[in-house]
Design goal:
Pfam families: TetR_N. It comes from Paenibacillus mendelii. By secondary structure, the protein is mainly alpha-helical. The protein has two domains: about 50 residues, Arc Repressor Mutant, subunit A; about 130 residues, Tetracycline Repressor, domain 2, CATH 1.10.357. The chain contains nine helices and no strands. Helix 1 crosses helix 2, helix 5 packs antiparallel against helix 9 and helix 6 packs across helix 7.
């Protein structure tokens, strides 16, 4: 019984990895179930046992990405006691990631918002949930730091992060990684009590 569960788990993982790669390379709408099963080597029947539809597969990828994002976030702020420094550390980490690999600022959730723009689509809802949770976390850090208008500042910082991720896709390696840190520092400083 346990071997069967491990096989199912391995098949599910293979589908997630394969689909993620294909969606990243070609987009969500351009990749069909047939391509996913062909590339993964997993049968269509097995895929549908794990994911009743392509949309369910996309949501599972988004959920996995959400877990990885929060793991990255916590590792980034771990050991930093000052909430203002935690905020800056987020921007420094994003800038550093971009400097090492411009593709690292590709945002799966922004891609979902473009390809699934309707608010009642399950993928869109998952993307919105993820982004709203980031916004709430930024607001919490702004409050903990004792900064003026924490909700307003959090929104500004959120827009800065999102804009940097999107603009990096257009500008590439020349994207202003250092400037995003300076802009965040300027916003934070402007909201000191």
């Amino acid at each position: 019984m346990r071997i069967s569960a491990e096989k199912k788990s391995a098949a599910r993982e293979q589908l997630l990895v394969t689909a993620s790669t294909l969606f990243f390379q070609k987009g969500f709408h351009a990749v069909g179930v047939d391509s996913i099963v062909a590339e993964s080597g997993i049968t269509k029947m097995t895929m549908y046992k794990h994911f009743p539809s392509k949309d369910h597969l996309i949501v599972a990828i988004l959920e996995r990405s959400d877990e990885l994002y929060w793991e990255w976030f916590e590792n980034t702020v771990d050991g930093i006691s000052d909430p203002k420094q935690q905020l800056l550390a987020i921007f420094e980490a994003v800038a550093k990631q971009h400097s090492s690999s411009p593709q690292s600022t590709f945002c799966l959730y922004q891609a979902v918002a473009v390809e699934f723009p309707f608010p009642d689509h399950v993928a869109n809802m998952s993307a919105v949930h993820h982004k709203q949770s980031i916004l709430k976390r930024l607001e919490s850090l702004c409050e903990q730091a004792g900064l003026k208008s924490p909700r307003f500042l959090a929104r500004q910082l959120f827009v800065l992060l999102e804009g940097f991720c999107m603009s990096s896709r257009f500008i590439g390696a020349d994207s202003p990684a250092a400037e995003v840190v300076n802009a965040a520092a300027t916003l934070i400083e402007a909201h000191r009590q």
